[in-house]
Specification:
mainly alpha; 51% helix; disordered N terminus
Length: 206
C-alpha cells in the first residue's frame, strides 16, 4: 500500500504543470520601486539595507513572501519589517518570482573592507566549540556563497552593518524566519565583539 501511495505521488508530481518561473525582464521593470533602498541593480549604497544583487532567487523569494505574510498576519507569521511589509503587501506571487529572478541575475558589487579582526575569520571558519558555536562556513561555504538548494543565502561581500543588524535581530529574537531556528540558536551565543568581527569578515569575502 505504501509503495502504491509513493508511486501515485511521484506520478502526480511528474504530471502536474511546472510552477511559473520568474521573468528577468519583467522583474527589472517591477524593480523600479526597489531602487531607492537597493539601487537599480540591487547593490545598495546604504549599508543598513542589503545588497540583493546575485542573491539566490529562491532566498529572495522566501524573504519577500515572509515580509508579505507578516504584513497580512500582523506579525504572527513571516518576517516583520515596516518598510518591506508595505512594499510587499500588494505583490502577487508572480511579481515576487519576477523580482527574485531579476535581482539574482545581477552581479554583486565589491566593497573593500579594511582592518578585519582575526576573531571574525576564526569564528567563521571554525566556530567556538567551547561555547557551542558552529562555524558559519559549514552552511555558507568558504566564500560565503551559501547553497540555494539548501536554502542558505549568499552572504559573502554583504554590507558589514547589515550583517551586524541581522545577527543582532536573530540574537534578540526580533527576526525569527530562519530555517529551523538555526541562526537564532547560533546568534544567541554570540557577544557584541563576535558579531562585529564576523560582520567585518563576511563583508570581506569575495
Amino acid at each position: 500500500m505504501k509503495k502504491l501511495a509513493l508511486a501515485l505521488s511521484v506520478i502526480a508530481a511528474i504530471s502536474s504543470p511546472a510552477q511559473a518561473e520568474g521573468n528577468v525582464e519583467a522583474g527589472k521593470a517591477k524593480s523600479l520601486v526597489c531602487a531607492a533602498c537597493h539601487n537599480v541593480d540591487g547593490n545598495s549604497m546604504i549599508d543598513m539595507y542589503p545588497k540583493i544583487a546575485g542573491q539566490h532567487a529562491t532566498y529572495i523569494e522566501k524573504q519577500l513572501h515572509d515580509f508579505r505574510s507578516a504584513m497580512q498576519t500582523g506579525g504572527k507569521e513571516g518576517r516583520m519589517d515596516p518598510i518591506m511589509g508595505g512594499m510587499t503587501a500588494a505583490l502577487t506571487d508572480q511579481d515576487i518570482k519576477d523580482l527574485s529572478a531579476y535581482f539574482a541575475s545581477q552581479a554583486q558589487s565589491v566593497t573593500p573592507v579594511e582592518n578585519v579582526p582575526e576573531l571574525g575569520e576564526k569564528l567563521y571558519k571554525g566556530g567556538d566549540m567551547s561555547r557551542g558555536i558552529t562555524s558559519c562556513m559549514a552552511c555558507h561555504g568558504p566564500d560565503g556563497k551559501g547553497s540555494e538548494l539548501a536554502g542558505f543565502p549568499n552572504i559573502g561581500g554583504q554590507h558589514a552593518n547589515y550583517i551586524k543588524i541581522q545577527l543582532t535581530k536573530f540574537r534578540d529574537g526580533t527576526r525569527n524566519n530562519d530555517l529551523n531556528g538555526m541562526m537564532q540558536d547560533i546568534a544567541k551565543k554570540l557577544n557584541d565583539e563576535d558579531i562585529q568581527a564576523l560582520s567585518s569578515y563576511i563583508a570581506s569575502l569575495k
